[in-house]
């Protein structure tokens, strides 16, 4: 079989790329190892920056987000047991929207179905070949057990951090930059209304906690936990007790408790692979870079990558113009490092580093205080948080 672009992975990057290519008349096939149900139910990102929201609206997929997404014009940094609001809209003219990543996945998958655009779920043994040539190919086993060979003009590796694409490059091509923080996040989804109208990022001597939400009925919460800690050490009662302690305020804030629907652990690390392309393989999203989740940037970076990639592939395959493809990596990496810097700074400012001395802890507190008390500092922080506009 022939197709212009073979896309590995049906996360936000792969699905969005496929749809953007379709809008430009370039045909693609998305290959996903999990089922449609799995992709649509997986609890991941919750915060969409304005550029992502604008793009969804511009391509005609913003209707449900408009209706069900929760626009937020600010959030709280909670420390010293008090709230310090960062008024995002007042400072930047922009907002963020709380709308689950899996809702974006559902919207994109439905749009594919309506237009008969191919997504193959439950494929296995995906392998990439001849990436150095102008006719790379992807082999895989489809859901019914048939071995398939897909000849392409380009391959997009949108298969996340643990995918096959990045590892298909010859050794020596990629330079990898990594950093790991000495703690992790425990994330829970609770069937209870949010206890506050906005997100709360809390810095506490026992560690970081985050109050977020998914809908008027669903609260999303995160707790900093020790590296190597395990889910079985966190029965529901302990989760609530620790959240209540860390989110406590001088005026007696209490979280509304409720049944936990999901509980998972996320490690906190940074990763960048450079360059983001080689021959006819283009990496996008988590396949090329991971930022720590404190700054809600990962999904938004994935969307920024594929917006650029769709343009580059259209120019390459339809206009015989290789220039945007040649500069794809360089232009994405500028945004990636900017987000990396912001997310690392926000992570360090809010978490309790078990290896840090008291001096470093005082510095983190000073930075928090500066961020909320200097208007230029708050404006700069808010601008990074809502997301830089797409170029
Ligand atoms: P993924 O979503 O990982 O998708 C990759 C897809 O490829 C998956 O469907 C996978 O099944 C598939 N795949 C993998 N290997 C193969 C293979 N061999 N063959 C076929 N298919 C394969 N980002 C934000 O912007 N805002 C937030 O609020 C936010 N919060 C987060 C909270 C948490 C707890 C976590 C963990 C992340 C958060 N992120 C957030 C980051 C965001 O979820 C990711 O950056 C985003 O999912 C990246 O999208 P992607 O399409 O690149 O990769
Ligand atoms: C959520 C995740 C984040 O990483 C963040 O910074 C804010 C909110 C969330 O899942 O709701």
TrEMBL record:
GO terms for molecular function: FAD binding; oxidoreductase activity, acting on paired donors, with incorporation or reduction of molecular oxygen, NAD(P)H as one donor, and incorporation of one atom of oxygen. InterPro entries: FAD-bd, FAD/NAD-bd_sf, RIFMO-like. Residues 2-342 form the FAD-binding domain. The keyword Flavoprotein applies. The keyword Flavoprotein applies. SUPFAM superfamilies: FAD-linked reductases, C-terminal domain, FAD/NAD(P)-binding domain. Keywords: FAD, Flavoprotein. NCBIfam families: PRK08243.1. This is 2-polyprenyl-6-methoxyphenol hydroxylase-like oxidoreductase. It comes from Saccharomonospora xinjiangensis XJ-54.
């Amino acid at each position: 079989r022939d197709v212009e672009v073979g896309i590995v992975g049906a996360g936000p990057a792969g699905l969005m790329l496929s749809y953007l290519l379709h809008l430009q008349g370039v045909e693609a096939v998305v290959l996903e190892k999990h089922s449609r149900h799995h992709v649509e139910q997986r609890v991941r990102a919750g915060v969409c920056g304005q550029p992502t929201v604008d793009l969804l609206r511009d391509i005609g997929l913003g209707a449900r987000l408009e209706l069900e997404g929760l626009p937020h014009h600010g959030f709280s940094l909670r420390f010293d047991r008090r709230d310090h609001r960062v008024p995002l809209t007042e400072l930047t003219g922009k907002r963020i929207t709380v709308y689950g990543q899996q809702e974006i996945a559902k919207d994109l998958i439905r749009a594919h179905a309506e237009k008969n655009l191919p997504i193959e779920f439950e494929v296995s043994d995906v392998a990439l070949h001849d990436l150095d040539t102008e006719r790379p190919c992807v082999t895989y086993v489809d859901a019914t057990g048939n071995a398939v060979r897909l000849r392409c003009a380009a391959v997009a590796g949108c298969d996340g951090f643990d995918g096959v694409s990045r590892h298909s490059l010859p050794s020596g091509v990629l330079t990898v930059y990594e950093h790991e923080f000495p703690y992790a996040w425990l994330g829970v989804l609770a069937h209870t209304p949010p206890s506050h109208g906005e997100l709360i990022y809390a810095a506490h001597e026992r560690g970081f906690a985050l109050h977020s939400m998914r809908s008027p009925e669903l609260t999303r919460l995160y707790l900093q936990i020790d590296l190597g800690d395990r889910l079985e050490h966190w029965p529901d009662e302990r989760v609530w007790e620790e959240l209540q302690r860390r989110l406590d305020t001088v005026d007696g804030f209490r979280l509304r408790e409720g049944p936990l629907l999901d509980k998972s652990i996320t490690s906190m690390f940074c990763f960048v692979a450079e360059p983001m392309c080689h021959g006819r393989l283009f990496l996008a999203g988590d396949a090329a870079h991971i930022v720590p989740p404190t700054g809600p940037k990962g999904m938004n970076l994935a969307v920024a990558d594929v917006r650029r990639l769709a343009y580059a592939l259209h120019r390459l395959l339809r206009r015989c113009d290789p220039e945007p493809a040649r500069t794809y990596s360089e232009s994405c990496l500028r945004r990636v490092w900017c987000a990396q810097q912001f997310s690392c700074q926000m992570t360090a400012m809010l978490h309790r580093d078990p290896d840090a001395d008291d001096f470093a802890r005082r510095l983190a507190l000073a930075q928090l205080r500066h961020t909320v008390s200097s208007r230029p500092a708050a404006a700069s922080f808010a601008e990074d948080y809502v997301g830089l506009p797409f170029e």
